[in-house]
Specification:
By secondary structure, this protein is of the alpha+beta class. It has 11 helices and 4 strands; from the N terminus they run βαβαββααααααααα. The structure holds glutathione.
């Protein structure tokens, strides 16, 4: 029995969701509400002591770290659909792309996301409420990020993160103009993990990700969105959010 704890189909949570759907694995969805700080609650920290999503529960064992979860699914739950090349060199190429998204691309996009959305959420709290929430955050660096979001990220930091985003989308686009997938010849975890961060940038970062400037990247985003497993996942998981919101009355 598999359970995925997530914030729904976006960012790091999207990586294992896409892998689960592509592989046709059954799992139970447990969606946490970030606006209610559910990921910092004691019950969830007993599952992931870092207080972050996603986390995969597999019959009593918990696997964290989105890309590690995807690789775990390949190893522990093989199906007819393989998302990792067998060839050692191609597998290494795949891991260079997943390492890059985890260590570089994800972080610059994340900071701008925090600046745009988390800052407002943090500013809406009173000082006392905010301190109470921060005290529950288990990772010191995340406490710092929440404080920065509330105070406002320094402009030079935002400028630097935007520069890195521009570098990232250019790198993806240049590769994808000449290649159908990130690892030539096969749809892999490299595509899934990078798509999880890049999808939606055609709206949120339209000045950087658009048909004129990044045609290769746009073609790849559209091609992944058109995959049957991806369409089914977005349709089903969105439905569950609506359903959950109704139940929670929010
Ligand atoms: N390296 C981790 C990062 C996980 C992460 O940053 N998750 C975000 C959501 S995309 C989160 O839980 N943010 C809430 C917080 O840190 O307070 C992974 O890839 O799973």
């Amino acid at each position: 029995m598999l359970k995925l704890y997530s914030f729904g189909p976006g960012a790091n949570s999207l990586k294992p969701m896409l892998a689960l759907y592509e592989k046709g694995l059954d799992y139970e969805q447990v969606q946490l509400n970030p606006a209610k700080f559910e990921h910092h609650s004691d019950w969830y920290k007993a599952i992931n002591p870092r207080g972050q999503v996603p986390a995969l529960w597999d019959d009593g064992k918990v696997v964290t770290e989105s890309t590690v979860i995807c690789e775990y699914l390949e190893d522990a739950h093989p199906t007819a659909v393989k998302l990792r090349p067998d060839d050692p060199f191609e597998r290494a190429e795949m891991r260079v792309w997943t390492k890059w998204v985890d260590e570089y691309f994800c972080w610059c996009v994340s900071t701008i996301g925090w600046h745009r959305y988390v800052g407002k959420m943090a500013q809406d709290l009173s000082d006392a409420e905010f301190e109470e929430k921060v005290a529950n955050i288990p990772v010191y660096e995340q406490q710092v990020k929440w404080r920065r979001a509330r105070a406002g990220f320094p402009q030079d930091m935002l400028d630097e993160e935007m520069r890195k985003i521009a570098v990232s989308v250019k790198k993806l686009d240049e590769h994808l103009r000449d290649n159908e997938w990130l690892v030539p010849g096969m749809y892999t975890l490299a595509d899934i993990c990078n798509f999880a961060i890049a999808n939606g940038m055609q709206y949120g970062f339209a000045e950087l990700v658009n048909r004129d400037d990044t045609p290769g990247l746009i073609r790849w985003i559209e091609q992944i969105n058109a995959r049957p497993a991806v369409k089914t996942m977005f349709a089903e998981v969105q439905r569950e959010i609506v359903h959950e919101k109704k139940e929670l009355n929010v």
